[in-house]
Structures are given as structure tokens and as C-alpha cells.
Amino acid sequence: MRVSNEWKDYECIDAGNGEKLERWGDVIFRRPDPQAMWNVNYNENWKNVDGHYFRSVKGGGEWKFNKKLKDHWTIDYKHLTFKVSPTNFKHTGLFPEQATNWDFMMDIIKKQDKKIKVLNLFAYTGGATMACSSAGADVVHVDASKGMTEWAKENMRLSGLENNFIRFIVDDCLKFVEREYRRGNKYDAIVMDPPSYGRGPNGEVWKFEESLYKLIDACMKILSDEPVFFLVNSYTTGISSIVLENILKTTMLKKYPEGVVDAGDVGLPITRDNLVLPCGIYGRWSKND
Fold first, then answer.
1. 123-161 pLDDT, tens per residue?
2. Interatomic CA distance for residues 130 and 139, integer angstroms
3. Which of 28, 52, 151, 173 is geometrically suited to a Cys-Cys bond with 125, CB 3.0 to 4.6 A?
4. CA proximity to 124, closest of 160, 87, 161
5. Is residue 83 a contact partner of residue 155, using CB atoms and an 8 Å limit?
6. Residue 206: what pLDDT?
7. Which residues on neighbouring strands pair with residue 285, listed in sequence order?
């Protein structure tokens, strides 16, 4: 497991009974988390929260705020700054468990003796985009949501990366990759965070189990002759990290045997009881140093 344990502005305070208690800067949230299946004894910390997200039996849910919060605020991870805002679908615009992958990518990019070109697919609000850009890479950021792409642009400005090369594209990821192949464009690194289910801007349907291999196969065609990493994140329930490991072994490792494949869980340290909250899976290929 890769644990994102270098945060100062974020903390998973406690977890259990299907919920997690978190600190985002100085704001305390209580949110559902299906991975927190163990029992927890609720203490006063669970009651004294600034925001509590309740699931609805009809689907979805809503926030209940115990004090008036700003529409948004910022938190820092090392040299990066991100906008945080509670959305009506539970999320805050940032997945702090991904910091371990940001560190992985930044470390590799900084070791290269040439400019690296990175493609970030399903790029959301751009955590990976900002990490790669800050390390010196040129980044192409692709997401089907115009709203999330605008949020990513805010994160770019907050992190002081306006003068770096970041190209923002609102598009269906597979269609974009296929066009890049026809254009002859190449990338030294690719990172993707595909959803379980989604739709592109023109109604294109994405289903993780049916679409992932096709996308990875298409991405293989736009890699440079000497790629440095290929990273896949997933939050799809029921998919093992072994699936990602096997896919990368039969694609990336087969074509680029000089690299290494690694897969597993990503997680967050829980302050109380010294546990780790599993938050998703990853699979990555990287070239040998």
C-alpha cells in the first residue's frame, strides 16, 4: 500500500461505521466512506463538525453545515495550492490520497535530463497536472467536464504555474487519444483516473470494465520511444489492483521490458488508532533508473 502521509493541511482524524472525519485546513467534515467498515466509538470530535454529508435513501445526499463556511478555501501540499469546496455530490474537489502518486511522478520527472511531455486523462481538478507541471513537465490536461477543467485552471493559478505549458482540453478521453495518434503526437508519460461510469461531452459512454483496456491500448500508440511512466488510478468497486498489474504487464511491460510494474492500494493514515483508510487502487509502469 502507498500511504499519503506527508500532508499538513489535510488530516483523516478518525474513521469507522461507514464514515470518515477529516480536517481540510481548519474546516472539519464528516463524510460517508464505504471502506470504513470497522466499528468506531463516536467521541465529541464526531459531533463538533463544520459540515456533515448525509446519504439519501433515494440516492445522492446533502450537506448540513453547522456554521457558515466560505464557498471555497485553499489547502497546500508541499509547494502546491488547491481550491477546496464542498460539492453537492459529497466531494471537495481534491483526493488527498493521491499525494503519494503526485510524489512518484514529480520524483521521476525531476530526474530526467530532458523536457518530459505528460498526458493527464480524466484529469478532474488537476492534482496530477499541477504536480507534473511544477516538476518541470509540459502537460496536456483532458477531462470531459468543463466545470472541473475551469477548477483545474484555478488550481494552476493558485500554484503559480500560469507561465508553465499546460494545455487544457474538454473532450472525451478515448476520442482525444485516437486523434493524437492520427496527428502523430507523442507523450513521455501518461496518467489516468478513469471513472466507473461516465459520459463524454457529446454523450460518449464510458464503462470501466468495457473501456479501460481499449483506452490503454490506444495510449500505447502515442507513447514516445523512451517513456518514463504510465499510471492508472481507480476507485471502481470490485476491481483488484491485480487487474491493473496484469493489464500493465501485458501491455507496457511487454513493449517496454526495461521498466517495472507496481500495483496496490492507496490510502490515508488515520490519526486515531494508527490505522490506514484504503481509498482506491493504482497500477504503474516506470522505467528503471
1. 999 999 999 999 999 999 999 999 999 999 999 999 999
2. 9
3. 151
4. 87
5. yes
6. 66
7. 230, 261
CB atoms within 10 A of CB 23: 19
Q: Annotate 236-279 with DSSP letters as a single string.
A: -TT--HHHHHHHHHHTHHHH-TTEEEEEEEEEEEETGGGEEEEE
Residue closest to 135 by CA, chosen among 95, 189, 193: 189
All 3 cell numbers of residue 162?
Answer: 500560469
Q: Is the pTM of this model over 0.90?
A: yes
pLDDT digits (tens, 9 = 90+) for 210-251: 778 999 999 999 999 999 999 999 998 889 999 999 999 999
Strand, coil or helix: 102: helix
CB 158 within 8 A of CB 150: no
pLDDT value of residue 204:
73
Q: Residue 225 and residue 230: Cα distance in Å, rounded?
A: 13
